[in-house]
Amino acid sequence: MSSPKKPPLVRAPLNRERVSLAAVRLADESGLDALSMRNLAQELGVVPMALYKHVANKEELFDEMINALVLEIDPLQKDLEWKPALRHRILSARTVLLRHPWAPHVIESRTSASPVVLDYMDTLIGIFLKAGFSLDLTHHAMHALGSRMWGFIQEVFPTPESPTDPEELAEAFAQWSIRYPNIIEMATAANHTDESQRTQGCDDQFEFEFALDLMLDGFERLHKSGWSSTQVSRSQNASLESAVRGKRK
Amino acid sequence: MSSPKKPPLVRAPLNRERVSLAAVRLADESGLDALSMRNLAQELGVVPMALYKHVANKEELFDEMINALVLEIDPLQKDLEWKPALRHRILSARTVLLRHPWAPHVIESRTSASPVVLDYMDTLIGIFLKAGFSLDLTHHAMHALGSRMWGFIQEVFPTPESPTDPEELAEAFAQWSIRYPNIIEMATAANHTDESQRTQGCDDQFEFEFALDLMLDGFERLHKSGWSSTQVSRSQNASLESAVRGKRK
DNA sequence: ACCTGAACACCGTTCAAGT
DNA sequence: ACCTGAACACCGTTCAAGT
After folding, report:
1. What CA–CA distance (Å, rounded) separates B239 from B232?
2. Which residue of A22, A139, A215, A226 shows the fewest CB atoms closer than 10 Å?
3. Which of B103, B33, B34, B32 is nearest to B73 (CA)?
4. How many CB atoms are located within 10 Å of the residue A42 CB?
5. Considering the domain B16-70 in this protein, what is its CATH number?
6. Nucleotides on strand D with an atom closer than 7 A to protein CB?
């Protein structure tokens, strides 16, 4: 009953690396849902339990997959200014992520950072510090970058796809224009501005870079103005907010 | 063999709302892992299959949970300027999210936006447009906000917790200082700046507001300068990036 | 209309045993 | 040292049946 397509009577012995690389391949090709210990074992021509000699459990397998992924990110370019250096590294992280669509979900499920992950973060922090950023501002900047440092686009809720039938589409459009006038106004405008992109949806790469540059420019401005966290900027906004809260009560 | 603690011989009839509210409660109290159709049914004193009369499958249950959550967000305050209006709404979304720790994971798993979700997004877009933002800039701003509009902090990889034994801690610290000098330098500084926060870790609320204000200030600046997406800002950075790419080749 | 029981096709993981 | 077989305690969901 076993598949005749898998005849490795003599099999290369399993090891941690072979297991995690196979896991990455399986997730790349068949999606994260298909990555069960049982499926992975079958892919390796082995009984499920054999995997547990090389990986303590599925969580550890995920950790190992993330390590493989982080090692794909371009190394630091030491001769660049802080801004292009950060930009290059993070855009590289993004191209890596695009090769592994399962990555965001797996990254988010990790409960602690591995040495490989910490190395990456350490180099990013190093870029800020070497450029003379204060420890304080560097700290906040790293938090503000958040998952964007891994190349996440962090969109949620893709808009439902429009019907293909033109008549249905017209009707749907009409209903939406009433219920969600602002969305429709914005979306139709966006579709016309740049004809090079696919007719529906927008250019993810552009949106990623737009947001990244917005943050980098913001960091630069705060750095140049000698910003520190014990300053006006926050309390100003905070008092606005508490004014709003008071009003509602 | 059935539990003697659940004697509702006459039970209020189930409906969609009772099912989803029970799901929210179960996830709040016991975590997302505990929210299985079987557990939920037991919580409601019913056999698992009974749920499927009110909800097509587990995905639909998740959709309904998100709806319940979005409806908890403060309504729009029409008398505010665009910036405090956005700020208030998004900070409200954040407090809602903090009440429901399972929400980020569930939100990210949704494949399309429900009417309730679209309503929320429509009002945010409306705030920009009413303030005179171009359709173009509004579109990019919404993407740049990304999951932050739902109050996500979007941290990943919490640093591993330090050992409690002081001797181990000293040793760990020494090793980290060598391997991750920048992380250590930044982290120790951050712990000293604000004594009001817990000794380790940092103030999540501050980091969220810092990043939010950074984006809002950026939007304001672009708006005032009449920014449009067909401009220099991008090509400038893009040419920098391609210069880097060329260099590496 | 609403609920039930039994079953199907899966999971991750433990344990004791094989070579 | 490395792999196996059988089993355990779970999943979401289908189907045919009950009241």
Report:
1. 10
2. A226
3. B103
4. 16
5. 1.10.10.60
6. 2-6, 10-16
Q: Inspect the interface and report whether the beta carbons of B240 and A87 lie closer than 8 Å.
A: yes
Q: Over its length of 249 residues, how does chain B's per-residue pLDDT go in tens digits?
A: 333 333 344 456 788 999 999 999 999 999 999 999 999 999 999 999 999 999 999 999 999 999 999 999 999 999 999 999 999 999 999 999 999 999 999 998 888 899 999 999 999 999 999 999 999 999 999 999 999 999 988 777 766 666 778 888 888 888 989 999 999 999 887 655 554 444 345 678 999 999 999 999 999 999 999 877 665 444 455 545 555 554 443
Q: Which nucleotides of C are covered by protein (CB under 7 A)?
A: 2-6, 10-16
AA letter at A93: A
Which residue, B74, B72, B100, B99, is CA-closest to B87?
Answer: B74
Instruction: Identify the sign of the CA torsion B122, B127, B131, B133.
Output: negative
> How many CB pairs lie under 8 A apart between chains A and B?
233
- How do the domains of chain A map onto residue ranges? 16-70, 82-155+208-233, 166-201
Q: In angstroms, rounded to a whole number, what is the distance separating the alpha carbons of residues B176 and A164?
A: 57
How far is A55 from chain B, CA to nearest CA, in Å?
Answer: 20
Say whether A229 and B193 touch across the interface (CB within 8 A): yes
CB B32 within 8 A of CB B106: yes
Q: What is the pTM of this model?
A: 0.85
Contact B182 A209 (CB under 8 A): no
Question: Which nucleotide's C1' atom has the smallest distance to the CA of A56?
Answer: C13
Tell me which chain A residues have a C-beta less than 8 angstroms from the C-beta of B185.
125, 129, 135
Give B104's contacts in chain A (Cβ within 8 Å): 108
Q: What is the rounded distance in angstroms from the CA atom of residue B191 to the CA atom of residue B198?
A: 8
